[in-house]
Every structure is written in structure tokens, then in C-alpha cells.
Amino acid sequence: MGFYDHYILPRFLNAAMGTKPIRYQRKKVVPRAEGRVLEVGFGAGHNLPFYDASKVSHIWALEPAQEMRERAAERVAESTVPLEFLDLPGEQIPLDNESADTILITYTLCTIPDVMAALGQMRRVLKSNGRMIFCEHGEAPDENVRKWQRRLTPAWKAIGGGCHVGRQIPKMIADSGFKIDDMETMYLPGTPRFAGFNYWGSATKG
Q1: Which CATH number do you get for residue 28?
Q2: CA 18 to chain centre
Q3: How many CA atoms lie within 13 A of 148 on its CB side?
């Protein structure tokens, strides 16, 4: 791991994932989680303050980057929900079949290298009556914005930890065997349009 990935990237991600528009999105989706929750891409724990502790019995916090787990330490210490770190990537979720009541994924599908394999793992570990809660940014509906997404993705990946700004989030979720039950979309105010088109909602096993 180079100097940028070790020292600069964790600070950049911690700041970017804690901006006001993104915090507002987290408030919309995180309280919907319940039971035994697998959070994929836990990062620095920005979702923790928004969990409803009366509804959540356990959190598996999947985060392969040690630097991000370290940055999450203060938020973890303040949380009242039992939490267990999993340090493998999303393509290798170390849980039994149908062990999670809720999968929570926020601003993570853009960075996973083999995103379809990771979604397949999420579907495997989700209970048959469980729910995946998601909030992601991805492909914009406007062609002029999509052009900029295609142009900027190579550079953005280099500085943003592998982030693809134009992934087709609903298609990927559906193609992996989930059924989207509800979804809203919008450009987040105060964010660059090429990286600011958001999808959020929930899905069940199709």
C-alpha cells in the first residue's frame, strides 16, 4: 500500500462521507435496519449514529481497510449496539447462508471491484424474509452528465479508492437476484452532478 492509500485516502473518504448532504441521506435509510444487520462497506462508521438501537440486535461491520476501521473506533465506542468487525472484502462475506435480517449498503457499490460477486454474497447471507437497504450514487439520467461520468471515472477511481461514478445501480441490484421494492432518486444538492445522482430504497430476494 502506497503513501496515498495509507495516509491520504482514509482522510479524504472520512471527510467526503461525512458531508451534510450525505448525512441527510443516511438519516433516511439507516433507521430502517432491524435485527441482525450486515453493513457492507462500514468505512469510518458514519452510519452508526443513525441506527435505531431499539430495533437492531447486532451489527456485522464489513470493512477490509484497517485504516478505516481505526477511524471508526470513536463512533464504535459511543454506540450501544453490539458490533463485530469483518475484515474481508464484499466478495468474501464470512457469514452463513441466511444469517442477516438486514443488509445495509451506503456509498459502497461504486468501489467494489467485482460488484456482482459481492451482491451475490449479500443475497446468499440475507434471510428469505430479510431486506437490503441501499443508498448509492451512480449513473445519471441526463446524457450530458453521463458523458462527464465516463470521462472522469478513470481519474476519480484513482483518487477515490476505486469509485466508479456511473454504475447502473438499479440494474446491478436486479441482475444479482434482488427485487427492488421501493426506490427514490435525485441529484444531491451541494454535490458535483457527475458524482451526485443518488438512488436509495430497499430490495428483497427475487
Answers
A1: 3.40.50.150
A2: 13
A3: 11
Name, in order, each residue with C-beta under 8 angstroms of 94's C-beta and a sequence gap of 6 or more.
Answer: 86, 88
Please tell me whether the overall predicted TM-score, pTM, comes out greater than 0.85 for this model. Answer: yes
pLDDT in tens, 149-206: 999 999 988 887 789 999 999 999 999 999 999 999 999 999 999 999 999 999 999 7
DSSP string, 93-152: --S-TT-EEEEEEES-TTT-TTHHHHHHHHHHHEEEEEEEEEEEE---SSHHHHHHHHHH
| Set of cell numbers at residue 32 | 430502517
Amino acid, single-letter form, for residue 161: G
Amino acid identity, position 119: L
Host domain of residue 92: 3-205
Classify strands 197-205 and 126-137 as parallel, antiparallel or unpaired.
antiparallel
